[in-house]
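To fix ideas, we reproduce below one chain and its tokenised fold.
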Amino acid sequence: MLPIIASIMEPNTAVVVVLPLRSLMTDWERKLKAMKVRFQVYQPNASLKNTVNLILVSADKAKFDTWRKHLAELNETLPVTRMVFDEAHFPLLSNDFRESMQHMHEIRQFPMQLILLSGTVPPGSVPALKEMFGLKKNAKEIRQSSNRPELEYILRAPMPSHMIENEVMGIVKQERLGWTTKDRGLVFVTYLTDGESLSTKVSDIGR
């Protein structure tokens, strides 16, 4: 709601939301459409519209020179005053293997408010996060309880790939018995091929 409220309350300024995951982009688009909030998704082959002040951009594209050029052009007619990075803990976890998560201070190319959102950053990681995004040590931190009673974690010991599918399928079938249409499940695997195979088989369960 932070970027949404800002875009509504200050229609003559632009708010940028940076999203590090494709699934996050899909989720934001779905929710904004349901709320009838006007927004635009940045595409490198098109300039930003100055008639829509809420902008979604992937973290990967936010590092492109074309993005920086288009954002600077937009700023001339519609001042860009805020940038919100959702799930801001991702650079801490993936900067060593994902190039777009490196040098995060570069995303703020001219003076603007930078807001980092995350529900999973422990207090001990906050200084590293501030340093990574080029924030001063005294940057304001607003923290609430990180207890998430709506989440359930099911952990299993590492096992060979050929055993993972049967284990996961059993868990999914059991868990789905108590799910509602609002419930979601995430399966974390070591290898992409395992995830692709599981995705197909898990999808078939609900048909």
In short: The helical segments are 2-9, 22-34, 65-77, 90-94, 126-132, 161-176, 192-205.
